[in-house]
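re: ur question from earlier - yeah i can do the single chain one, its not a big deal. heres the input i used so u can compare w yours
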Amino acid sequence: MLDFIIPVVAALVLGFVQALVHMFKNRYSKSFVATLAILPAIVCVVIMAVDGNIGAGVAVAGAFSLVRFRSAPGTAKEIGSLFMAMATGILTGTGSTLYAVAFTLIISAVVLVYQAMDFGRTKNEGLHRNLRITIPEDLDYTGVFDEVFEEYAKDYRLLSSRTSNMGSMFRLTYDVTLRDLSIEKEFIDKLRCRNGNLEISISALMERETAEL
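and the output i got, formated as C-alpha cells:
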C-alpha cells in the first residue's frame, strides 16, 4: 500500500502547488484549478494501473485531461498547465517522485518569474478591442468605415464577415487598436452614423488561443 499511497500523495501535493502557480496573476475558474490540483494524482494512478506502460497511460490520461476543450475554448496557459500536471503524474506514477518534485519546482519558478515580468505582453494590449458591427445588406462595407478607423484607431483589420437575419444583414468582426481609451464612446457614435444605427458591440480582446489542435 505504501508503494501506492506515497506517489499519489506526492502527486496531490505537487498538483496543489501547480494550481497555486496557475492562479498567480492569471484568470481562472474554480473548477479548472480544482481539477488541475488533482490531475497529477489521476494520471499517476492511470500510469500505475497500466503497469508502467507510459504509451497507454498517456493516451488514456491525455484524452481525459483535454476533453474539456471540446466544449469550452482553453487558453495556451491552461493547456500548458494541463501538460505540466500530466508530466508530474507520469513521473510520480513511474516511481520518479524526486524528479517530479524537481520538475515542479523548476517550471513553477520559471512561470512565476514570467508572470511577474508580464513576459510577452504587448505595448498596446489594453487598447486592443474586438469590434462587431451589423450593417444592412445594401451597404457596401468595403472601405465604408475606413475614415472613422483612421481617426480613432492605431491599427485595424477585418477578421470576418457573415450574413444574418435571413441574409438581410451582414455582421462584420474587426480587430481594432484604439488610439486612447477615452474615445471609445465617441468612436462607437461615429460608427453608428455609418451603419444606420444598427447593433454595434465592442469588447476587450481575450486570449484567443484555443485547444483546436
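The radius of gyration is 24 Å. not sure if urs matches, ping me
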